[in-house]
Amino acid sequence: MQPKIIVSKNRDGRDKEIWNLLQISHITPTNPDLLIFEEEKIGIVQIKQLINHLSTKPFGKTAKSVIILNGNNISPDAQNALLKTLEEPPGEAIILIGVDTETKLIPTVLSRCLVLQHESGSVNN
Question: What does pTM read for this prediction?
Answer without folding.
Answer: 0.92
